[in-house]
Amino acid sequence: xxxxxxxxxxxxxxxxxxxxxxxxxxxxxxxxxxxxxxxxxxxxxxxxxxxxxxxxxxxxxxxxxxxxxxxxxxxxxxxxxxxxxxxxxxxxxxxxxxxxxxxxxxxxxxxxxxxxxxxxxxxxxxxxxxxxxxxxxxxxxxxxxxxxxxxxxxxxxxxxxxxxxxxxxxxxxxxxxxxxxxxxxxxxxxxxxxxxxxxxxxxxxxxxxxxxxxxxxxxxxxxxxxxxxxxxxxxxxxxxxxxxxxxxxxxxxxxxxxxxxxxxxxxxxxxxxxxxxxxxxxxxxxxxxxxxxxxxxxxxxxxxxxxxxxxxxxxxxxxxxxxxxxxxxxxxxxxxxxxxxxxxxxxxxxxxxxxxxxxxxxxxx
Length: 365
Known about the structure:
Helix content: 25-40%
Protein name: Enoyl-CoA hydratase/isomerase
GO molecular function: catalytic activity
Organism: Rhizorhabdus wittichii (strain DSM 6014 / CCUG 31198 / JCM 15750 / NBRC 105917 / EY 4224 / RW1)
Order of helices and strands: EEHHEEEEHEEHEEHEEHHEHEHHHH
Family: Belongs to the enoyl-CoA hydratase/isomerase family.
InterPro entries: ClpP/crotonase-like_dom_sf, Enoyl-CoA_hydra/iso, Enoyl-CoA_hydra_C, Enoyl-CoA_Hydratase/Isomerase
Protein backbone atom coordinates (compact mmCIF):
# COMPACT_ATOMS: atom_id res chain seq x y z
CA UNK A 1 0.00 0.00 0.00
CA UNK A 2 1.47 3.38 -0.96
CA UNK A 3 2.32 5.78 1.81
CA UNK A 4 -0.49 8.15 2.64
CA UNK A 5 0.14 11.81 1.97
CA UNK A 6 0.14 13.76 5.22
CA UNK A 7 -2.78 16.20 5.50
CA UNK A 8 -2.08 19.76 4.45
CA UNK A 9 -2.77 22.65 6.78
CA UNK A 10 -6.02 24.52 6.14
CA UNK A 11 -5.80 27.11 3.37
CA UNK A 12 -7.33 30.23 4.87
CA UNK A 13 -8.16 33.33 2.86
CA UNK A 14 -5.95 36.06 4.37
CA UNK A 15 -8.27 38.92 3.45
CA UNK A 16 -11.79 37.84 4.33
CA UNK A 17 -12.74 36.56 7.78
CA UNK A 18 -16.30 35.62 8.54
CA UNK A 19 -17.95 36.62 11.78
CA UNK A 20 -21.48 35.67 12.81
CA UNK A 21 -22.80 36.36 16.30
CA UNK A 22 -19.27 36.90 17.58
CA UNK A 23 -17.98 33.58 16.22
CA UNK A 24 -15.07 33.56 13.75
CA UNK A 25 -16.03 30.99 11.15
CA UNK A 26 -13.09 29.06 9.73
CA UNK A 27 -13.01 26.82 6.70
CA UNK A 28 -11.06 23.57 6.76
CA UNK A 29 -10.57 21.15 3.90
CA UNK A 30 -9.58 17.48 3.89
CA UNK A 31 -6.94 16.64 1.28
CA UNK A 32 -8.11 13.03 1.16
CA UNK A 33 -11.60 14.08 0.07
CA UNK A 34 -10.22 15.20 -3.27
CA UNK A 35 -7.27 12.82 -3.60
CA UNK A 36 -9.23 10.23 -5.55
CA UNK A 37 -10.58 12.59 -8.19
CA UNK A 38 -9.51 11.34 -11.65
CA UNK A 39 -8.52 14.72 -13.08
CA UNK A 40 -5.99 15.32 -10.31
CA UNK A 41 -2.78 13.48 -10.93
CA UNK A 42 -0.15 15.63 -9.27
CA UNK A 43 0.39 17.27 -5.94
CA UNK A 44 0.27 20.69 -7.63
CA UNK A 45 -3.03 19.85 -9.29
CA UNK A 46 -4.40 18.65 -5.99
CA UNK A 47 -3.40 21.89 -4.28
CA UNK A 48 -4.98 23.91 -7.08
CA UNK A 49 -8.21 21.91 -6.76
CA UNK A 50 -8.28 22.42 -3.01
CA UNK A 51 -7.75 26.14 -3.44
CA UNK A 52 -10.56 26.32 -5.96
CA UNK A 53 -12.89 24.39 -3.68
CA UNK A 54 -11.84 26.57 -0.75
CA UNK A 55 -12.63 29.71 -2.73
CA UNK A 56 -16.01 28.29 -3.81
CA UNK A 57 -16.97 27.37 -0.24
CA UNK A 58 -15.72 30.72 1.08
CA UNK A 59 -17.77 32.79 -1.37
CA UNK A 60 -20.78 30.54 -0.83
CA UNK A 61 -20.64 31.06 2.93
CA UNK A 62 -20.17 34.82 2.55
CA UNK A 63 -23.18 35.10 0.24
CA UNK A 64 -25.24 32.89 2.54
CA UNK A 65 -24.31 35.10 5.50
CA UNK A 66 -25.30 38.24 3.60
CA UNK A 67 -28.64 36.71 2.58
CA UNK A 68 -29.38 36.02 6.25
CA UNK A 69 -28.38 39.57 7.25
CA UNK A 70 -30.61 41.07 4.55
CA UNK A 71 -33.51 38.78 5.49
CA UNK A 72 -33.18 39.80 9.14
CA UNK A 73 -33.21 43.45 8.17
CA UNK A 74 -36.41 42.97 6.17
CA UNK A 75 -38.04 41.27 9.15
CA UNK A 76 -36.98 44.09 11.47
CA UNK A 77 -38.16 46.73 9.02
CA UNK A 78 -41.57 45.09 8.58
CA UNK A 79 -41.98 45.03 12.36
CA UNK A 80 -41.55 48.81 12.43
CA UNK A 81 -38.36 48.74 14.47
CA UNK A 82 -34.88 49.55 13.08
CA UNK A 83 -35.61 49.84 9.37
CA UNK A 84 -33.28 49.21 6.47
CA UNK A 85 -30.65 51.98 6.21
CA UNK A 86 -32.42 55.20 5.25
CA UNK A 87 -31.52 57.01 2.06
CA UNK A 88 -29.88 60.37 2.70
CA UNK A 89 -32.22 63.30 2.19
CA UNK A 90 -31.68 67.00 1.95
CA UNK A 91 -32.66 68.91 5.07
CA UNK A 92 -31.92 72.61 4.71
CA UNK A 93 -28.18 73.06 5.25
CA UNK A 94 -27.87 69.52 6.56
CA UNK A 95 -28.11 66.10 4.96
CA UNK A 96 -29.47 63.27 7.09
CA UNK A 97 -27.70 59.91 7.21
CA UNK A 98 -28.13 57.03 9.63
CA UNK A 99 -24.48 56.81 10.73
CA UNK A 100 -23.00 60.17 9.69
CA UNK A 101 -23.77 63.75 10.66
CA UNK A 102 -23.32 66.26 7.83
CA UNK A 103 -23.86 69.97 8.39
CA UNK A 104 -22.69 73.03 6.47
CA UNK A 105 -22.15 76.43 8.02
CA UNK A 106 -20.51 79.39 6.26
CA UNK A 107 -18.76 77.29 3.63
CA UNK A 108 -17.47 74.62 6.04
CA UNK A 109 -18.95 71.11 6.13
CA UNK A 110 -18.70 69.33 9.47
CA UNK A 111 -18.73 65.57 8.96
CA UNK A 112 -19.04 63.35 12.02
CA UNK A 113 -18.76 59.56 12.07
CA UNK A 114 -21.69 58.90 14.37
CA UNK A 115 -21.56 55.49 16.05
CA UNK A 116 -20.07 56.42 19.44
CA UNK A 117 -21.60 53.35 21.12
CA UNK A 118 -19.32 51.26 18.84
CA UNK A 119 -16.38 53.69 19.01
CA UNK A 120 -17.38 54.90 15.53
CA UNK A 121 -16.52 51.57 13.93
CA UNK A 122 -17.60 51.39 10.29
CA UNK A 123 -20.49 48.97 9.78
CA UNK A 124 -22.09 48.02 6.47
CA UNK A 125 -24.48 50.99 6.65
CA UNK A 126 -21.70 53.53 7.17
CA UNK A 127 -19.61 51.82 4.49
CA UNK A 128 -22.44 52.50 2.02
CA UNK A 129 -23.16 55.98 3.32
CA UNK A 130 -19.59 57.28 3.17
CA UNK A 131 -19.30 57.29 -0.66
CA UNK A 132 -22.73 58.91 -0.90
CA UNK A 133 -21.77 61.51 1.69
CA UNK A 134 -18.53 62.38 -0.15
CA UNK A 135 -20.49 62.66 -3.41
CA UNK A 136 -22.94 65.05 -1.74
CA UNK A 137 -20.09 67.12 -0.29
CA UNK A 138 -18.33 67.32 -3.65
CA UNK A 139 -21.54 68.52 -5.33
CA UNK A 140 -22.63 70.84 -2.50
CA UNK A 141 -22.21 74.46 -3.71
CA UNK A 142 -22.35 75.71 -0.11
CA UNK A 143 -19.44 73.50 1.05
CA UNK A 144 -15.92 74.70 0.21
CA UNK A 145 -13.94 72.67 2.78
CA UNK A 146 -14.76 69.84 5.19
CA UNK A 147 -13.77 68.88 8.72
CA UNK A 148 -14.24 65.19 9.49
CA UNK A 149 -14.20 63.90 13.07
CA UNK A 150 -15.71 61.21 15.29
CA UNK A 151 -18.68 61.45 17.65
CA UNK A 152 -17.95 61.32 21.37
CA UNK A 153 -14.65 61.81 23.15
CA UNK A 154 -13.22 58.28 23.15
CA UNK A 155 -12.56 57.40 19.54
CA UNK A 156 -12.28 58.91 16.08
CA UNK A 157 -12.81 55.56 14.32
CA UNK A 158 -11.83 52.03 15.31
CA UNK A 159 -11.98 50.57 11.80
CA UNK A 160 -14.40 48.04 10.39
CA UNK A 161 -17.09 46.56 12.61
CA UNK A 162 -16.15 42.88 12.37
CA UNK A 163 -19.78 41.77 12.63
CA UNK A 164 -20.43 43.38 9.23
CA UNK A 165 -17.06 42.74 7.59
CA UNK A 166 -18.16 40.06 5.07
CA UNK A 167 -20.88 42.26 3.59
CA UNK A 168 -18.59 45.29 3.38
CA UNK A 169 -15.98 43.47 1.28
CA UNK A 170 -18.34 42.45 -1.52
CA UNK A 171 -19.49 44.43 -4.52
CA UNK A 172 -23.06 44.53 -5.80
CA UNK A 173 -22.55 41.23 -7.61
CA UNK A 174 -21.48 39.52 -4.39
CA UNK A 175 -17.78 39.20 -5.27
CA UNK A 176 -14.85 40.49 -3.16
CA UNK A 177 -13.75 43.85 -4.58
CA UNK A 178 -11.38 46.61 -3.54
CA UNK A 179 -13.96 49.04 -4.92
CA UNK A 180 -16.19 48.20 -1.94
CA UNK A 181 -13.83 50.18 0.35
CA UNK A 182 -14.48 53.84 -0.51
CA UNK A 183 -14.43 55.61 2.81
CA UNK A 184 -12.12 58.59 2.29
CA UNK A 185 -12.19 61.69 0.08
CA UNK A 186 -9.21 60.42 -1.90
CA UNK A 187 -10.83 57.03 -2.55
CA UNK A 188 -13.85 58.93 -3.92
CA UNK A 189 -11.76 61.44 -5.91
CA UNK A 190 -13.02 64.42 -3.96
CA UNK A 191 -10.69 67.35 -4.63
CA UNK A 192 -12.16 69.86 -2.20
CA UNK A 193 -9.94 70.34 0.88
CA UNK A 194 -10.61 67.99 3.81
CA UNK A 195 -9.29 68.42 7.36
CA UNK A 196 -9.25 65.39 9.65
CA UNK A 197 -9.70 66.15 13.37
CA UNK A 198 -8.61 63.08 15.35
CA UNK A 199 -10.48 63.29 18.65
CA UNK A 200 -9.50 59.93 20.19
CA UNK A 201 -8.41 56.41 19.34
CA UNK A 202 -7.78 55.42 15.73
CA UNK A 203 -7.51 51.73 14.88
CA UNK A 204 -7.35 49.58 11.76
CA UNK A 205 -9.51 50.96 8.97
CA UNK A 206 -9.76 54.30 10.75
CA UNK A 207 -6.19 54.88 9.60
CA UNK A 208 -7.54 55.37 6.06
CA UNK A 209 -8.67 58.86 7.10
CA UNK A 210 -5.30 59.68 8.67
CA UNK A 211 -3.51 58.57 5.51
CA UNK A 212 -5.81 60.16 2.94
CA UNK A 213 -7.17 63.44 4.31
CA UNK A 214 -5.28 66.58 3.32
CA UNK A 215 -4.59 68.08 6.74
CA UNK A 216 -4.59 66.03 9.95
CA UNK A 217 -4.98 67.59 13.39
CA UNK A 218 -5.08 65.46 16.51
CA UNK A 219 -6.03 65.74 20.14
CA UNK A 220 -3.15 65.31 22.56
CA UNK A 221 -5.01 62.24 23.86
CA UNK A 222 -5.28 60.57 20.43
CA UNK A 223 -3.72 57.14 19.88
CA UNK A 224 -3.04 55.08 16.76
CA UNK A 225 -2.99 51.28 16.46
CA UNK A 226 -3.33 48.69 13.70
CA UNK A 227 -4.59 45.37 15.16
CA UNK A 228 -5.23 43.57 11.84
CA UNK A 229 -2.61 40.84 12.24
CA UNK A 230 -3.67 40.22 15.85
CA UNK A 231 -7.08 39.03 14.64
CA UNK A 232 -5.74 37.13 11.64
CA UNK A 233 -6.28 39.81 8.98
CA UNK A 234 -3.84 41.29 6.49
CA UNK A 235 -2.98 44.95 6.99
CA UNK A 236 -2.56 46.32 3.49
CA UNK A 237 -4.62 49.20 2.19
CA UNK A 238 -4.41 51.78 4.95
CA UNK A 239 -0.81 50.98 5.86
CA UNK A 240 0.31 51.26 2.23
CA UNK A 241 -1.32 54.69 2.12
CA UNK A 242 0.26 55.66 5.45
CA UNK A 243 3.72 54.79 4.11
CA UNK A 244 3.28 57.65 1.62
CA UNK A 245 2.76 60.11 4.46
CA UNK A 246 5.34 58.99 7.02
CA UNK A 247 8.49 56.82 7.20
CA UNK A 248 7.96 53.17 6.28
CA UNK A 249 9.77 51.80 9.34
CA UNK A 250 7.21 52.93 11.94
CA UNK A 251 4.38 51.83 9.63
CA UNK A 252 5.85 48.32 9.43
CA UNK A 253 6.42 48.18 13.18
CA UNK A 254 2.82 49.21 13.92
CA UNK A 255 1.40 46.81 11.32
CA UNK A 256 3.47 43.80 12.40
CA UNK A 257 3.18 44.32 16.17
CA UNK A 258 -0.61 44.56 15.90
CA UNK A 259 -2.57 45.37 19.02
CA UNK A 260 0.61 45.46 21.11
CA UNK A 261 1.93 48.62 19.42
CA UNK A 262 0.28 51.99 20.02
CA UNK A 263 1.57 55.29 18.66
CA UNK A 264 0.87 58.26 20.90
CA UNK A 265 -0.18 61.66 19.61
CA UNK A 266 3.26 63.15 20.25
CA UNK A 267 4.95 60.26 18.44
CA UNK A 268 2.52 60.68 15.54
CA UNK A 269 3.44 64.36 15.29
CA UNK A 270 7.17 63.58 15.27
CA UNK A 271 6.66 60.97 12.53
CA UNK A 272 4.63 63.28 10.29
CA UNK A 273 1.53 61.14 10.73
CA UNK A 274 -0.35 64.23 11.95
CA UNK A 275 0.44 67.88 11.38
CA UNK A 276 -0.58 69.52 14.64
CA UNK A 277 -1.63 68.64 18.19
CA UNK A 278 -4.34 70.42 20.17
CA UNK A 279 -5.73 70.20 23.67
CA UNK A 280 -8.80 67.91 23.56
CA UNK A 281 -11.24 70.74 24.26
CA UNK A 282 -9.61 73.00 21.63
CA UNK A 283 -9.40 70.53 18.73
CA UNK A 284 -12.63 71.35 16.91
CA UNK A 285 -12.22 75.10 17.38
CA UNK A 286 -8.76 74.88 15.86
CA UNK A 287 -10.00 72.74 12.95
CA UNK A 288 -12.89 75.13 12.30
CA UNK A 289 -10.59 78.16 12.39
CA UNK A 290 -8.24 76.53 9.87
CA UNK A 291 -11.19 75.62 7.65
CA UNK A 292 -12.44 79.22 7.80
CA UNK A 293 -9.07 80.42 6.49
CA UNK A 294 -9.03 77.82 3.71
CA UNK A 295 -12.55 78.58 2.50
CA UNK A 296 -11.50 82.13 1.52
CA UNK A 297 -9.34 80.77 -1.32
CA UNK A 298 -10.33 79.95 -4.90
CA UNK A 299 -12.26 76.63 -4.86
CA UNK A 300 -11.10 75.60 -8.34
CA UNK A 301 -7.47 76.57 -7.67
CA UNK A 302 -7.48 74.55 -4.43
CA UNK A 303 -9.01 71.52 -6.15
CA UNK A 304 -6.39 71.56 -8.92
CA UNK A 305 -3.62 72.13 -6.38
CA UNK A 306 -4.77 69.22 -4.23
CA UNK A 307 -5.04 66.84 -7.15
CA UNK A 308 -1.63 67.85 -8.52
CA UNK A 309 0.06 67.13 -5.19
CA UNK A 310 -1.70 63.81 -4.52
CA UNK A 311 -1.16 62.68 -8.12
CA UNK A 312 2.59 63.18 -7.72
CA UNK A 313 2.58 60.19 -5.38
CA UNK A 314 1.32 58.04 -8.25
CA UNK A 315 3.26 59.33 -11.26
CA UNK A 316 6.66 60.49 -10.01
CA UNK A 317 8.32 63.91 -10.09
CA UNK A 318 8.85 64.45 -13.82
CA UNK A 319 5.42 63.37 -15.03
CA UNK A 320 3.68 65.07 -12.11
CA UNK A 321 5.43 68.35 -12.93
CA UNK A 322 4.42 68.11 -16.60
CA UNK A 323 0.82 67.34 -15.63
CA UNK A 324 0.77 70.21 -13.13
CA UNK A 325 2.05 72.62 -15.78
CA UNK A 326 -0.75 71.57 -18.16
CA UNK A 327 -3.33 72.09 -15.42
CA UNK A 328 -1.86 75.48 -14.49
CA UNK A 329 -2.11 76.66 -18.10
CA UNK A 330 -5.70 75.49 -18.28
CA UNK A 331 -6.56 77.15 -14.98
CA UNK A 332 -5.07 80.41 -16.26
CA UNK A 333 -7.99 80.57 -18.70
CA UNK A 334 -10.62 80.47 -15.95
CA UNK A 335 -12.61 83.17 -14.17
CA UNK A 336 -10.80 82.63 -10.87
CA UNK A 337 -7.37 83.26 -12.38
CA UNK A 338 -8.45 86.58 -13.89
CA UNK A 339 -10.47 87.51 -10.80
CA UNK A 340 -7.57 86.79 -8.45
CA UNK A 341 -5.20 89.04 -10.37
CA UNK A 342 -7.85 91.76 -10.69
CA UNK A 343 -8.77 91.67 -6.98
CA UNK A 344 -5.10 91.84 -5.98
CA UNK A 345 -4.43 94.93 -8.11
CA UNK A 346 -7.67 96.58 -6.97
CA UNK A 347 -6.92 95.76 -3.31
CA UNK A 348 -10.28 94.08 -2.65
CA UNK A 349 -11.56 90.64 -1.69
CA UNK A 350 -11.90 88.31 -4.70
CA UNK A 351 -15.28 87.01 -5.84
CA UNK A 352 -14.64 83.40 -6.79
CA UNK A 353 -16.80 81.37 -9.15
CA UNK A 354 -18.86 78.56 -7.55
CA UNK A 355 -17.01 75.25 -7.64
CA UNK A 356 -18.26 73.00 -10.43
CA UNK A 357 -15.67 70.24 -10.33
CA UNK A 358 -12.61 69.63 -12.47
CA UNK A 359 -12.28 67.36 -15.46
CA UNK A 360 -10.62 64.01 -14.68
CA UNK A 361 -8.37 64.17 -17.75
CA UNK A 362 -7.55 67.87 -17.96
CA UNK A 363 -3.84 67.12 -17.47
CA UNK A 364 -3.98 64.94 -20.57
CA UNK A 365 -3.66 61.77 -18.48
